Amino acid sequence: MIRITDLRHKLLDIPDLSLVARHIAVIGPNGSGKTTLLSVCAGLEEPKRGRVQILGKPPSAAKIGWVGEFPDRTLLFSRVYDEIASTPRFRHYPCTRADELVRAAAEAVGIVHLLDKKVSALSGGEKALVGLAAAVVDNPEVLILDEADSHLDAGTAKRVHRIVRESPAAHVLWCTQSMDAAAEADFILFMDGGRVRHHGTPDEVFSALEGTCFYPTIWRLRS
Ligand SMILES: Nc1ncnc2c1ncn2[C@@H]1O[C@H](COP(=O)(O)OP(=O)(O)OP(=O)(O)O)[C@@H](O)[C@H]1O
């Protein structure tokens, strides 16, 4: 469970929210607080007031895989292999185990051909895939992705959605501007002005958003 209690931080104002669903999409207009909420849940920002508990622990104690909105700002190593290997190496895994994990993550994300490349030579979408491989390499308890699909072509985005859906993480907290992707989540948070304005299943949330630009295109076409 992800439990939010009396959270006040920057523009966020979320009195009480318990999230038990596995695949949770966070949607809402620009500047509504999605990234801020994900950053607090990932333990990257300490809230001014209130708290977030991830699986009964503070975020800093949970095993979290994080993919930021701007991979250029979050990838630290010059070689793709070293970026994906950073978590197993920080955890002092034996070299052979770290190598197995890196190759399995690269295989799952479809970037084995990039392993020996320099990160600086990659496209934006390739960097996003490297960030995803680095986030899933050591089977995080919770996977948090901030618009990880925004740089990707439609086919690659579909593959990423599948990887994320099939991830063994207890929760995937996923911010996206693709309402069609959000429609496949188990649970949706719709944010506006730092508050959670709607939450529930895709049916519940999107029925409240019918007639707005947040209604999924695939749903509009089928009706
Ligand atoms: N200390 C603060 N107090 C109140 N609001 C703040 C503070 N710091 C930043 N903000 C506002 O928070 C908003 C940024 O929120 P955030 O990046 O979480 O939004 P977002 O929903 O992820 O947006 P986008 O879809 O554009 O990525 C901005 O409008 C910014 O001005």
List the uncertain runs: none
Mind summarizing the main beta sheet?
6 strands, mixed
**How much is the average pLDDT?**
94
Order of helices and strands: EEEHEEHHHHEHEHEEHH
Could you name the CATH topology of the domain at 1-56 and 171-223?
Rossmann fold
What is the CATH superfamily label of the domain at 1-56 and 171-223? P-loop containing nucleotide triphosphate hydrolases
Task: Look at the helices and sheets and give the structural class.
Answer: alpha/beta
Number of strands: 9
Proportion of residues in helical segments: 25-40%
Name of the CATH architecture of the domain at 1-56 and 171-223: 3-Layer(aba) Sandwich
Biggest sheet strand order reads: 5-6-7-3-8-9
Q: Which range does the strand content fall in?
A: 15-25%
Main location: membrane
Pfam families: ABC_tran
Subcellular location: Cell membrane
Function: Probably part of an ABC transporter complex. Responsible for energy coupling to the transport system.
